[in-house]
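Hi C.,

You asked whether I'd gotten around to modeling the 142-residue construct. I have! Everything is below, sequence then structure, no commentary in between.
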Amino acid sequence: MPQSSLVNVTHIRGLVLSLFFRSEGPQACFDELLGCLPALTHLALDLNVGDDSSRIFKPFIEAVLHHIRLRRFICCCARVNQATLLRALSFVHDERVYLWCDARDGSNVDFVTGLISDAKAGRNVWEDGQPICRSDAGAAAA
């Protein structure tokens, strides 16, 4: 896709496997991504987080949240991985981080098929995600 096509992209959703968490330099990866998407303010990532991912997950999330331009970061996961992901996110105290769990039966739906199914069913990670942390003012208003 030409760079000029990416200039106005404000929302993007992608898939990240546990293997990525082990790669060197998540900060460089996100710096490059946001450099290519100068208008990006909302990032949703489908995360395949295993029980062993918590210790390597922190630098990954910190790399994402380093970018103050992001207004919302949504961590998407299969319902069966919700508890593991919440444990991995326990260090996060940032109101921009949301959690969206896929309630479909089974976790073997491939990414693209899942996106199509979500669109057809009216599921929207941007609106359906739940904040994992709220300020006192936000909690009082809720």
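If it helps when you're writing up: Confidence is low (pLDDT under 50) at residues 137-142.

Thanks,
B.
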